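Regression test case RT-17, inverse folding.

Input:
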C-alpha cells in the first residue's frame, strides 16, 4: 500500500561492511532525511540517547507490541545476544504520510521484510564489503568481537551476500568516498528523482 510520497531508504549489510559510516555521511548531506528509530530490548550504550538512537524497551513490552501488531517487522539479532529489534508501524507511517523520507538501518531479513511491506515507498541498499578478507581485517581492527565471534560472522557471509542480491541497489564499500558518492547518486535518483551527477 502506498503511504504518501515519503520514501523508506532501507540500508543493510554484514557487520563490518561500514554501513554506519556511510549512513552518517548521507544524513549529514541530506538534512531532511530522518533516521528511523527502532524499538529494541538491548541495553542502551553510554553514548546513546533514548528516542534518538532507539526506543529502549523491556522484553515484555516488546512482546506485547508484537501481539498488538504494532511492528512492521522484528528480528532477534543473534550476534547481539539474542536481543530483539523492531520497526514501529505508527512511527514510519506517520513520517511517510507527511511526505518525509526515512533512513532505516536494519538487519538483512528485516530490510527485506520492510521492502515487502511497502514496495511502493521503499528504496533498498545493500552494503557489501569488498571481500571476505577485507571484512575479516575490519572486524579484527574494530576489536569488538573475539576470534570466535569473528569466525561466526565470516561463516554467515555467503548466505548474507545471497540475500543481499534481493535489494534494489548494491554498493561495494572498498573506498569510502566512492561508496558515499554511489549512495548520493542513488538517493538523488530514486528519492529526489534527479539525474545522476557524479
Ligand atoms: P546494534 O545493536 O549494533 O545497534 O544493531 C544490531 C543490528 O540490529 C544491526 O544490524 C541493525 O541494523 C539491526 N537493527 C536495528 N534496528 C532494527 C530493526 O528495527 N529491525 C531489524 N530487523 N533490525 C534492526
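Golden output:
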Amino acid at each position: 500500500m502506498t503511504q504518501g510520497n515519503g520514501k523508506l531508504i532501507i540500508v543493510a549489510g554484514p557487520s563490518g561492511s561500514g554501513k554506519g559510516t556511510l549512513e552518517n555521511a548521507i544524513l549529514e548531506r541530506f538534512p531532511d532525511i530522518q533516521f528511523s528509530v527502532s524499538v529494541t530490548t538491548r541495553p542502551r550504550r553510554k553514548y546513546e540517547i533514548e528516542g534518538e538512537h532507539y526506543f529502549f524497551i523491556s522484553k515484555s513490552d516488546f512482546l506485547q507490541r508484537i501481539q498488538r501488531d504494532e511492528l512492521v517487522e522484528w528480528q532477534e539479532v543473534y550476534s547481539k545476544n539474542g536481543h530483539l529489534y523492531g520497526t514501529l508501524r505508527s512511527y514510519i507511517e506517520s513520517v511517510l504520510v507527511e511526505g518525509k523520507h526515512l533512513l532505516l538501518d536494519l538487519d538483512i531479513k528485516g530490510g527485506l521484510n520492510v521492502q515487502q511491506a511497502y514496495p511502493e515507498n521503499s528504496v533498498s541498499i545493500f552494503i557489501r564489503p569488498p571481500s571476505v578478507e577485507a571484512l575479516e581485517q575490519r572486524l579484527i581492527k574494530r576489536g569488538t568481537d573475539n576470534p570466535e565471534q569473528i569466525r561466526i560472522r565470516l561463516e554467515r557471509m555467503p548466505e548474507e551476500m545471497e540475500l543481499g542480491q534481493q535489494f534494489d541497489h548494491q554498493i561495494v564499500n572498498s573506498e569510502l568516498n566512492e561508496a558515499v558518492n554511489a549512495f548520493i547518486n542513488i538517493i538523488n535518483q530514486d528519492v529526489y528523482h534527479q539525474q545522476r551527477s557524479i
